[in-house]
């Protein structure tokens, strides 16, 4: 009888313990995800972030992501420095370098890069300029070239084109128009003669007959590290785990993007699914039947594991110095934190 009582007590105690454990599991909240804001442009080249978000790669890394969209690179750099944005993916600009000199920003990885055999950024001219004889980049001397701001990637590309063709940057009339959309409008109407831009935009413009192609940027800047991944110096130096988790999710998104639209290893169905995903963010105001071909045909390589072409980044920095757009005293270490990705 005593034995039965002990067994009953033990069984009751174990049952109570199990119930307590179950109740604890229900009442103890899971660890909250780290909330981050990611800066982006509505370009196909920014797709890895969109893919990582849509496929849950950021969530897998314990990150709750909100996007903030920009129309040019320099405002994004300012937003990183002010803390309004945590991570950004865009071109190196004079503004970004100047903020790095002030200790506000660090480049931590690479994204879009020109690669032989893959259509890259295209040099464009208005139909009016083409009819006047501007049929190659060599004819851009004394012609106008649209840029967002002085010290932008467009400024860098125009200068490199001029250098290779044997004339000075000052021989091109640079027209700062602040926004990509404004440059498109000015080029179509003939208010500016020329521009260079990523293929998903360029190829769509070429279909209208108002704009003509005269060259490829890759012929002037081989292996150009077009865009980079960057963050605030504070995050880069004090939150390495956060940076690693962001780069891991971003890199998974890049792998999926490259497989579907650059290497074409996912077949037509995989490519179509990727285009549909990206369309939520790029040309979202157009039907997918119209936007899809531009998104697909404009895909460029995103560096594996966010590896960074430091050789080209150094060239960009040297150009900014030579043009007097940044201080001559800025070292590459001031701009780039090499702790996180492969450097080449």
TrEMBL record:
GO terms for biological process: alkanesulfonate transmembrane transport. Residues 1-32 form the signal peptide. The keyword Signal applies. It comes from the Bacteria. Gene3D superfamilies: Periplasmic binding protein-like II (3.40.190.10). Belongs to the bacterial solute-binding protein SsuA/TauA family. This is ABC transporter substrate-binding protein. It comes from Sneathiella chungangensis.
């Amino acid at each position: 009888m005593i034995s039965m009582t002990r067994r009953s007590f033990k069984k009751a105690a174990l049952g109570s313990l199990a119930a307590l454990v179950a109740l604890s599991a229900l009442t103890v909240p899971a660890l909250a995800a780290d909330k981050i804001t990611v800066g982006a442009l509505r370009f196909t080249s920014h797709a890895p972030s969109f893919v990582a978000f849509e496929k849950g790669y950021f969530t897998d890394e314990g990150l709750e992501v909100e996007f903030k969209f920009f129309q040019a690179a320099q405002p994004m750099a300012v937003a990183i420095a002010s803390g309004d944005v945590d991570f950004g993916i865009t071109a190196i600009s004079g503004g970004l370098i100047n903020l790095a000199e002030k200790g506000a920003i660090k480049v931590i990885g690479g994204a879009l890069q020109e690669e032989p055999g893959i259509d890259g950024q295209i040099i464009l001219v208005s139909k009016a300029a083409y009819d006047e004889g501007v049929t190659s980049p060599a004819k851009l001397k004394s012609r106008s070239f649209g840029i967002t701001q002085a010290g932008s990637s467009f400024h860098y590309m125009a200068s490199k084109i001029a250098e290779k063709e044997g004339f000075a940057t000052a021989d091109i009339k640079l027209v700062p128009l602040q926004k990509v959309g404004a440059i498109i409008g000015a080029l179509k109407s003939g208010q500016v003669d020329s521009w260079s831009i990523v293929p998903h935009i360029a190829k769509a413009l070429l279909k209208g007959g108002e704009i003509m192609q005269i060259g490829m940027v890759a012929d002037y800047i081989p292996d150009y590290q077009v865009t980079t991944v960057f963050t605030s110096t504070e995050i880069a130096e004090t939150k390495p785990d956060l940076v690693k988790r962001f780069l891991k999710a971003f890199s998974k998104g890049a792998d999926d993007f490259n497989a579907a639209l650059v290497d074409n290893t996912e077949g037509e169905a995989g490519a179509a699914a990727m285009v549909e995903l990206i369309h939520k963010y790029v040309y979202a105001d157009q039907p997918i039947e119209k936007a899809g071909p531009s998104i697909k045909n404009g895909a460029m390589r995103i560096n594996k594991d966010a590896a960074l072409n430091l050789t080209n980044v150094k060239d960009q920095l040297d150009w900014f110095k030579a043009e007097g757009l940044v201080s001559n005293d800025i070292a590459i270490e001031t701009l780039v934190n090499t702790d996180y990705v492969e450097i080449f």
